[in-house]
Protein backbone atom coordinates (compact mmCIF):
# COMPACT_ATOMS: atom_id res chain seq x y z
CA UNK A 1 0.00 0.00 0.00
CA UNK A 2 1.31 3.45 -0.89
CA UNK A 3 1.55 6.28 1.59
CA UNK A 4 0.53 9.92 1.78
CA UNK A 5 3.08 12.73 2.08
CA UNK A 6 2.12 16.18 3.42
CA UNK A 7 4.63 18.93 2.66
CA UNK A 8 4.41 22.04 4.83
CA UNK A 9 2.77 19.82 7.41
CA UNK A 10 3.62 22.07 10.36
CA UNK A 11 1.75 25.06 8.95
CA UNK A 12 -1.79 26.19 9.67
CA UNK A 13 -3.54 23.86 7.21
CA UNK A 14 -1.03 21.01 7.23
CA UNK A 15 -1.20 20.63 11.01
CA UNK A 16 -4.92 19.85 10.90
CA UNK A 17 -4.80 17.91 7.64
CA UNK A 18 -2.20 15.64 9.23
CA UNK A 19 -4.48 14.81 12.15
CA UNK A 20 -7.48 13.99 9.95
CA UNK A 21 -5.56 11.92 7.39
CA UNK A 22 -3.84 9.90 10.11
CA UNK A 23 -7.18 9.13 11.71
CA UNK A 24 -8.51 7.93 8.36
CA UNK A 25 -5.47 6.05 7.02
CA UNK A 26 -3.39 5.21 10.11
CA UNK A 27 -0.44 7.17 11.47
CA UNK A 28 2.21 5.04 9.76
CA UNK A 29 0.66 5.66 6.34
CA UNK A 30 0.88 9.46 6.50
CA UNK A 31 4.37 10.96 6.30
CA UNK A 32 4.53 14.57 7.47
CA UNK A 33 7.29 16.87 6.29
CA UNK A 34 8.40 20.30 7.38
CA UNK A 35 11.38 22.54 6.88
CA UNK A 36 11.08 25.98 8.48
CA UNK A 37 9.59 25.07 11.87
CA UNK A 38 11.04 22.39 14.16
CA UNK A 39 8.57 19.57 14.92
CA UNK A 40 7.30 19.12 18.45
CA UNK A 41 7.89 15.94 20.42
CA UNK A 42 4.22 15.14 19.93
CA UNK A 43 4.58 15.29 16.13
CA UNK A 44 7.74 13.15 16.18
CA UNK A 45 6.06 10.48 18.29
CA UNK A 46 2.81 10.44 16.32
CA UNK A 47 4.19 8.97 13.08
CA UNK A 48 6.84 9.28 10.37
CA UNK A 49 8.38 12.75 9.98
CA UNK A 50 10.85 14.05 7.42
CA UNK A 51 12.72 17.34 7.37
CA UNK A 52 12.10 18.33 3.76
CA UNK A 53 12.78 21.49 1.77
CA UNK A 54 10.33 21.21 -1.13
CA UNK A 55 12.61 23.41 -3.27
CA UNK A 56 15.23 20.62 -3.18
CA UNK A 57 14.29 18.25 -6.00
CA UNK A 58 16.64 15.46 -4.93
CA UNK A 59 15.24 15.56 -1.41
CA UNK A 60 11.65 15.37 -2.66
CA UNK A 61 12.45 12.35 -4.84
CA UNK A 62 14.32 10.67 -1.98
CA UNK A 63 11.35 10.97 0.39
CA UNK A 64 8.93 9.68 -2.26
CA UNK A 65 11.11 6.63 -2.87
CA UNK A 66 11.91 5.99 0.79
CA UNK A 67 8.27 5.83 1.88
CA UNK A 68 6.62 4.48 -1.29
CA UNK A 69 4.53 7.65 -1.57
CA UNK A 70 1.52 7.55 -3.91
CA UNK A 71 -0.26 10.79 -2.90
CA UNK A 72 1.12 14.20 -1.97
CA UNK A 73 -0.77 17.05 -0.32
CA UNK A 74 1.53 19.96 -1.16
CA UNK A 75 0.90 22.58 1.54
CA UNK A 76 4.35 24.22 1.68
CA UNK A 77 3.94 27.90 0.81
CA UNK A 78 4.79 31.47 1.78
CA UNK A 79 1.56 33.41 2.35
CA UNK A 80 0.42 36.83 1.16
CA UNK A 81 1.55 39.23 3.89
CA UNK A 82 4.90 37.50 4.38
CA UNK A 83 5.34 37.19 0.63
CA UNK A 84 5.15 40.94 0.11
CA UNK A 85 8.04 41.43 2.53
CA UNK A 86 10.23 39.13 0.42
CA UNK A 87 8.61 38.52 -2.98
CA UNK A 88 11.72 36.87 -4.42
CA UNK A 89 11.66 34.22 -1.72
CA UNK A 90 7.91 33.77 -2.16
CA UNK A 91 8.41 32.98 -5.86
CA UNK A 92 11.30 30.60 -5.11
CA UNK A 93 9.42 28.65 -2.45
CA UNK A 94 5.95 28.66 -3.98
CA UNK A 95 6.91 27.93 -7.58
CA UNK A 96 10.11 25.97 -7.01
CA UNK A 97 8.44 23.65 -4.53
CA UNK A 98 5.40 23.17 -6.77
CA UNK A 99 7.54 22.37 -9.81
CA UNK A 100 9.42 19.70 -7.87
CA UNK A 101 6.25 18.10 -6.58
CA UNK A 102 4.70 18.08 -10.06
CA UNK A 103 7.85 16.52 -11.48
CA UNK A 104 7.69 13.84 -8.79
CA UNK A 105 4.07 13.29 -9.76
CA UNK A 106 5.06 12.86 -13.40
CA UNK A 107 7.98 10.52 -12.68
CA UNK A 108 6.26 8.29 -10.14
CA UNK A 109 2.60 8.50 -11.25
CA UNK A 110 1.47 10.19 -8.05
CA UNK A 111 -1.82 11.83 -7.16
CA UNK A 112 -1.35 15.43 -6.03
CA UNK A 113 -3.37 17.96 -4.07
CA UNK A 114 -2.16 21.52 -4.71
CA UNK A 115 -4.10 24.36 -3.07
CA UNK A 116 -4.72 27.72 -4.68
CA UNK A 117 -6.27 30.73 -2.98
CA UNK A 118 -8.61 33.68 -3.05
CA UNK A 119 -5.37 35.57 -3.79
CA UNK A 120 -5.42 34.22 -7.36
CA UNK A 121 -7.91 36.97 -8.20
CA UNK A 122 -7.25 40.69 -8.49
CA UNK A 123 -8.97 44.08 -8.63
CA UNK A 124 -10.23 43.50 -12.19
CA UNK A 125 -11.95 40.22 -11.23
CA UNK A 126 -15.67 40.38 -10.41
CA UNK A 127 -15.82 41.19 -6.69
CA UNK A 128 -19.13 39.54 -5.83
CA UNK A 129 -19.88 35.87 -6.53
CA UNK A 130 -16.57 35.62 -8.38
CA UNK A 131 -17.03 32.96 -11.08
CA UNK A 132 -15.03 29.76 -11.33
CA UNK A 133 -13.64 30.90 -14.68
CA UNK A 134 -12.94 34.61 -14.94
CA UNK A 135 -10.14 37.16 -15.30
CA UNK A 136 -7.27 36.65 -12.86
CA UNK A 137 -4.78 39.52 -12.55
CA UNK A 138 -3.55 39.50 -8.92
CA UNK A 139 -1.40 42.32 -7.54
CA UNK A 140 0.52 40.40 -4.83
CA UNK A 141 3.43 38.02 -5.41
CA UNK A 142 1.51 35.35 -3.51
CA UNK A 143 -1.38 35.77 -5.93
CA UNK A 144 0.94 35.68 -8.93
CA UNK A 145 2.38 32.36 -7.74
CA UNK A 146 -1.11 30.97 -7.26
CA UNK A 147 -2.24 31.82 -10.80
CA UNK A 148 1.02 30.50 -12.26
CA UNK A 149 0.60 27.39 -10.12
CA UNK A 150 -2.95 26.79 -11.34
CA UNK A 151 -1.76 26.97 -14.95
CA UNK A 152 1.20 24.70 -14.28
CA UNK A 153 -1.02 22.10 -12.62
CA UNK A 154 -3.37 22.16 -15.60
CA UNK A 155 -0.39 21.74 -17.93
CA UNK A 156 0.92 18.68 -16.10
CA UNK A 157 -2.51 17.07 -16.29
CA UNK A 158 -3.03 17.88 -19.98
CA UNK A 159 0.54 17.04 -21.05
CA UNK A 160 1.32 14.00 -18.90
CA UNK A 161 -1.94 13.01 -17.23
CA UNK A 162 -0.72 13.81 -13.71
CA UNK A 163 -3.71 13.49 -11.37
CA UNK A 164 -3.43 16.92 -9.76
CA UNK A 165 -6.39 18.53 -8.04
CA UNK A 166 -6.88 21.62 -5.92
CA UNK A 167 -9.11 24.19 -4.26
CA UNK A 168 -9.02 27.96 -4.10
CA UNK A 169 -9.13 28.40 -0.35
CA UNK A 170 -10.78 31.53 1.02
CA UNK A 171 -9.53 32.94 4.32
CA UNK A 172 -9.22 30.03 6.77
CA UNK A 173 -10.04 30.15 10.48
CA UNK A 174 -8.55 27.58 12.84
CA UNK A 175 -8.88 26.88 16.56
CA UNK A 176 -5.80 24.66 16.56
CA UNK A 177 -2.93 26.60 14.96
CA UNK A 178 -2.05 30.27 14.80
CA UNK A 179 -2.01 32.03 11.43
CA UNK A 180 1.19 32.43 9.48
CA UNK A 181 1.39 35.81 7.78
CA UNK A 182 -1.77 35.98 5.69
CA UNK A 183 -4.10 38.87 4.93
CA UNK A 184 -7.06 37.09 6.54
CA UNK A 185 -5.20 36.39 9.80
CA UNK A 186 -7.36 38.90 11.68
CA UNK A 187 -10.26 36.45 11.60
CA UNK A 188 -8.25 34.03 13.75
CA UNK A 189 -6.50 36.58 15.97
CA UNK A 190 -9.78 38.25 16.90
CA UNK A 191 -11.09 35.16 18.70
CA UNK A 192 -7.92 34.75 20.76
CA UNK A 193 -7.94 38.40 21.77
CA UNK A 194 -11.68 38.37 22.51
CA UNK A 195 -11.06 35.68 25.13
CA UNK A 196 -7.74 36.98 26.49
CA UNK A 197 -8.22 40.77 26.36
CA UNK A 198 -11.87 41.34 25.38
CA UNK A 199 -10.61 43.78 22.78
CA UNK A 200 -8.88 43.55 19.41
CA UNK A 201 -7.08 46.00 17.14
CA UNK A 202 -7.83 45.00 13.55
CA UNK A 203 -5.46 45.71 10.66
CA UNK A 204 -8.28 45.82 8.08
CA UNK A 205 -11.12 48.34 7.72
CA UNK A 206 -14.40 47.45 9.41
CA UNK A 207 -16.22 47.16 6.06
CA UNK A 208 -13.72 44.82 4.32
CA UNK A 209 -15.68 41.86 3.00
CA UNK A 210 -13.71 38.65 2.39
CA UNK A 211 -14.72 35.08 1.70
CA UNK A 212 -13.96 32.89 4.73
CA UNK A 213 -14.15 29.28 5.89
CA UNK A 214 -13.77 27.34 9.11
CA UNK A 215 -10.85 24.93 8.98
CA UNK A 216 -12.88 21.72 9.49
CA UNK A 217 -14.76 22.49 6.27
CA UNK A 218 -11.51 23.22 4.41
CA UNK A 219 -9.95 19.94 5.52
CA UNK A 220 -13.04 17.93 4.67
CA UNK A 221 -13.33 19.60 1.26
CA UNK A 222 -9.69 18.89 0.42
CA UNK A 223 -10.00 15.20 1.18
CA UNK A 224 -13.41 14.96 -0.46
CA UNK A 225 -11.99 16.36 -3.70
CA UNK A 226 -9.12 13.86 -3.69
CA UNK A 227 -11.60 11.02 -3.25
CA UNK A 228 -13.99 12.29 -5.95
CA UNK A 229 -14.71 10.33 -9.12
CA UNK A 230 -12.28 11.82 -11.69
CA UNK A 231 -14.74 11.22 -14.53
CA UNK A 232 -17.06 13.84 -13.00
CA UNK A 233 -14.39 16.53 -12.63
CA UNK A 234 -14.55 19.09 -15.40
CA UNK A 235 -12.16 21.52 -13.75
CA UNK A 236 -10.08 19.18 -11.53
CA UNK A 237 -7.83 22.00 -10.39
CA UNK A 238 -8.45 25.31 -8.57
CA UNK A 239 -12.11 24.92 -7.58
CA UNK A 240 -13.73 27.90 -5.90
CA UNK A 241 -15.10 26.84 -2.51
CA UNK A 242 -17.04 29.09 -0.17
CA UNK A 243 -18.79 28.95 3.19
CA UNK A 244 -19.34 32.54 4.37
CA UNK A 245 -18.45 36.13 3.60
CA UNK A 246 -18.17 38.78 6.31
CA UNK A 247 -16.41 41.97 7.47
CA UNK A 248 -14.43 42.64 10.66
CA UNK A 249 -17.45 44.55 11.97
CA UNK A 250 -19.68 41.52 11.38
CA UNK A 251 -17.36 39.04 13.10
CA UNK A 252 -17.06 41.41 16.06
CA UNK A 253 -20.87 41.50 16.33
CA UNK A 254 -20.99 37.69 16.22
CA UNK A 255 -18.48 37.54 19.10
CA UNK A 256 -20.44 40.12 21.11
CA UNK A 257 -23.40 37.72 21.25
CA UNK A 258 -21.24 35.58 23.56
CA UNK A 259 -18.88 38.22 25.01
CA UNK A 260 -21.05 41.38 25.24
CA UNK A 261 -18.25 43.66 26.47
CA UNK A 262 -15.89 42.76 23.63
CA UNK A 263 -14.67 45.80 21.66
CA UNK A 264 -12.84 46.24 18.38
CA UNK A 265 -10.62 49.08 17.15
CA UNK A 266 -8.92 49.60 13.81
CA UNK A 267 -5.25 50.24 13.03
CA UNK A 268 -5.07 49.76 9.28
CA UNK A 269 -2.05 48.04 7.73
CA UNK A 270 -1.88 49.60 4.24
CA UNK A 271 -0.11 46.59 2.70
CA UNK A 272 -2.62 44.01 3.87
CA UNK A 273 -5.56 46.36 3.31
CA UNK A 274 -4.42 46.86 -0.27
CA UNK A 275 -4.22 43.10 -0.78
CA UNK A 276 -7.66 42.56 0.78
CA UNK A 277 -9.20 45.27 -1.41
CA UNK A 278 -7.97 43.42 -4.50
CA UNK A 279 -9.58 40.13 -3.46
CA UNK A 280 -13.19 38.99 -4.02
CA UNK A 281 -15.94 39.71 -1.50
CA UNK A 282 -17.48 36.29 -2.18
CA UNK A 283 -17.00 33.21 -4.38
CA UNK A 284 -19.36 31.41 -6.73
CA UNK A 285 -18.63 27.79 -5.81
CA UNK A 286 -21.34 26.17 -7.95
CA UNK A 287 -18.79 24.17 -9.96
CA UNK A 288 -17.50 22.44 -6.80
CA UNK A 289 -21.04 21.77 -5.61
CA UNK A 290 -22.05 20.29 -8.97
CA UNK A 291 -18.92 18.31 -9.84
CA UNK A 292 -18.08 16.69 -6.50
CA UNK A 293 -20.78 17.60 -3.99
CA UNK A 294 -19.16 20.41 -2.01
CA UNK A 295 -21.37 21.49 0.90
CA UNK A 296 -19.90 23.34 3.93
CA UNK A 297 -21.20 22.76 7.45
CA UNK A 298 -20.24 26.04 9.15
CA UNK A 299 -21.50 29.62 8.90
CA UNK A 300 -20.40 32.67 10.90
CA UNK A 301 -22.68 31.98 13.87
CA UNK A 302 -21.98 28.29 14.49
CA UNK A 303 -18.27 28.79 13.74
CA UNK A 304 -18.07 31.62 16.30
CA UNK A 305 -19.70 29.51 18.97
CA UNK A 306 -17.36 26.60 18.29
CA UNK A 307 -14.26 28.82 18.16
CA UNK A 308 -15.06 30.51 21.48
CA UNK A 309 -15.98 27.25 23.21
CA UNK A 310 -12.81 25.52 22.01
CA UNK A 311 -10.42 28.41 22.66
CA UNK A 312 -11.89 29.11 26.10
CA UNK A 313 -10.88 25.61 27.16
CA UNK A 314 -7.52 25.81 25.37
CA UNK A 315 -6.52 29.16 26.88
CA UNK A 316 -7.41 28.36 30.50
Protein traits:
single chain, 316 residues, alpha/beta, Rossmann fold, UDP-galactose 4-epimerase, domain 1, 2 domains, 6-stranded parallel sheet, 3-stranded parallel sheet, 14 strands, globular
Assembly category: single chain
Q: Report the strand count.
A: 14
Distance between the termini: 42 Å
Order of helices and strands: EHEHEHEHHEEHEEEHEEHEEHEHHH
Q: Sum up the overall morphology in one term.
A: globular
Structural class: alpha/beta
Number of spatially distinct domains: 2
How much strand content do the residues show?
15-25%
Estimate the helix proportion, in percent: 40-55%
What can be said about the biggest beta sheet? 6 strands, parallel
State the CATH architecture of the largest domain.
3-Layer(aba) Sandwich
Mean pLDDT: 95
- The CATH homologous superfamily of the largest domain is named NAD(P)-binding Rossmann-like Domain
Count the DSSP helices: 12
Query: What is the CATH class name of the largest domain?
Result: Alpha Beta
Low-confidence stretches: none
Supply Rg: 19 Å
| CATH topology category name of the largest domain | Rossmann fold
Question: Could you please describe the fold and organization of this structure?
Answer:
- The chain has 316 residues and is of the alpha/beta class.
- The chain has 2 domains: 3-170 and 214-240, Rossmann fold (3-Layer(aba) Sandwich), CATH 3.40.50; 171-212 and 243-282 and 298-314, Alpha-Beta Complex (UDP-galactose 4-epimerase, domain 1), CATH 3.90.25.10.
- Helix content is 45%, strand content 16%.
- It contains 12 helices and 14 strands.
- A 6-stranded parallel sheet has the order 3-2-1-4-5-7, with helices on both faces. Strands 6-8-12 form a 3-stranded parallel sheet. It has a 3-stranded mixed sheet with strand order 9-11-13.
Amino acid sequence: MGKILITGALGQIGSELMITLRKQHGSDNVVVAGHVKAPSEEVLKAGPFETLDATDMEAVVAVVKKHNITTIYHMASILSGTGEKNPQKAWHVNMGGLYNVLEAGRMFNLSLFVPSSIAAFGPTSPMDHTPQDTIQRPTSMYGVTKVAGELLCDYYFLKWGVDVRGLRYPGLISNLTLPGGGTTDYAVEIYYEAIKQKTYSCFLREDTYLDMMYMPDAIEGSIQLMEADPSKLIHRNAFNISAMSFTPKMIAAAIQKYIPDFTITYNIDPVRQGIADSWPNSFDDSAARKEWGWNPKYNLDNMTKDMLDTLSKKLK
